[in-house]
Structure to design on (280 residues):
């Protein structure tokens, strides 16, 4: 489901790109250090954005170091870690594990069960550190599963449920930033859910899996306009939340993601699905 909150590398300076990658590499290293080596496979850019936002707002003391890794064993890469890197790694583990649990319940195949077993140790570690967050995530995903079992075609209900999940994740603590961070997280969640549903529609129609847009399968032009309207609403509210936070650091990277990376990802999915449908 994740992978929709990305940078536009071409519009970043070299220094900004190196800085952004340092957050990504720091998150990857935290997954290995605090959980397991294999948990690094679950890393995604959407959770890297969580690290970036929380770090930019609270400006904690960060550890900066250079290390080689299995992806690039020749050249040492810049890593940046702080309390939010550890927090985001735990949230990443919780989301991954509960998604695997849902897959086991829905499909029950051996591959899903093995994958869940691989993440069991990491899940226990993340749960022990953040039990309230874990229970909140589980509750939202259970509500989402109920809607999916009912074959709900109410995209507002389903996307709002995932939005509430991301809202809880983005609110690190109850303070003067919590309401605005919640608004940011909520609209990130809605955007991710809607984009994922739209991009996976044809695949889900073939496999018979749930998709809230199935009723629009024979009117793709209407669906495209509907999704366009929903996404633009999410992005507008996301922009307002970012502006209201009055962030002083990493502005270039954050603006690149919000105004360029996310927008290009959205347009890429929309154009891809339209072109593929026209070719059939």
């Amino acid at each position: 489901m994740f992978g929709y909150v990305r940078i536009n590398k071409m519009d970043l300076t070299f220094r900004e790109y190196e800085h952004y990658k340092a957050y990504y590499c720091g998150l990857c290293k935290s997954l290995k250090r605090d959980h397991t080596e294999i948990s690094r496979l679950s890393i995604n850019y959407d959770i890297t954005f969580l690290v970036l936002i929380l770090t930019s707002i609270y400006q904690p003391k960060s550890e900066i170091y250079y290390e080689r890794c299995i992806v690039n064993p020749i050249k040492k890469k810049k890593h940046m870690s702080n309390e939010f890197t550890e927090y985001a790694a735990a949230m990443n583990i919780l989301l991954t594990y509960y998604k695997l649990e849902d897959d086991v319940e829905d499909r029950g195949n051996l591959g899903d069960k093995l994958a869940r077993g691989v993440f069991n140790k990491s899940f226990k570690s993340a749960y022990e550190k953040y039990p309230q967050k874990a229970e909140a995530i589980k509750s939202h995903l259970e509500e989402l599963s109920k809607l999916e079992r009912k074959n709900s075609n109410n995209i507002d209900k389903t996307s709002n449920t995932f939005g509430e999940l991301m809202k809880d994740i983005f609110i690190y603590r109850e303070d003067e930033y919590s309401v605005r961070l919640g608004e940011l997280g909520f609209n990130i969640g809605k955007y991710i859910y809607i984009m994922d549903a739209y991009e996976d529609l044809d695949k889900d129609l073939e496999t018979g899996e749930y998709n809230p847009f199935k009723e629009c399968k024979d009117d793709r032009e209407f669906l495209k306009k509907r999704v366009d309207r929903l996404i633009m609403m999410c992005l507008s509210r996301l922009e307002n939340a970012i502006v209201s936070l009055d962030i002083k650091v990493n502005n270039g990277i954050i603006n690149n993601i919000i105004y360029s990376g996310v927008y290009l990802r959205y347009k890429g999915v929309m154009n891809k699905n339209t072109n593929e449908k026209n070719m059939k």
